[in-house]
């Protein structure tokens, strides 16, 4: 039996986008969803005064860094779960995926978060029946790698 390649349809993209947009904290931070695909998720974050952690140097707060890495990772885990559960009806799939949550998140802060704009990317390392593992990176607007994260997500 051959499996059809997974396609992230407009309907599935809308479902992931809607899931993301219904979280008030994402809106508060100003996270923008830039790309959703089976291969990766891209999100961006414009710097604003409310996100500064080091007021002397205007550096992005570490909690904001871990948050955007987690949000990007969660979106990627959700896409991976869509692929693993494509045999289910839309209603069954959404019921299972409504339980999505972070089990573990490790963040390595590599450099200070300096810049006017930040870009988070996430790729799926593994998607199992109930758990997904995702690798995320955060870059500043000049391309500097600020932080990396590895997240484990309950997704089914």
Automatic annotation (TrEMBL):
It is an enzyme of class 3 (hydrolase). One of its GO terms (molecular function) is fatty acyl-CoA hydrolase activity. CDD domains: PaaI_thioesterase. Coiled coil: none annotated. It catalyses: a long-chain fatty acyl-CoA + H2O = a long-chain fatty acid + CoA + H(+); a fatty acyl-CoA + H2O = a fatty acid + CoA + H(+); a medium-chain fatty acyl-CoA + H2O = a medium-chain fatty acid + CoA + H(+). InterPro entries: HotDog_dom_sf, PAAI_dom, Thioestr_dom. Residues 57-147 form the Thioesterase domain. Keywords: Hydrolase. Its EC number is 3.1.2.20. It comes from the Bacteria. Pfam families: 4HBT. Belongs to the YigI thioesterase family. This is Medium/long-chain acyl-CoA thioesterase YigI. It comes from Pseudomonas taeanensis MS-3.
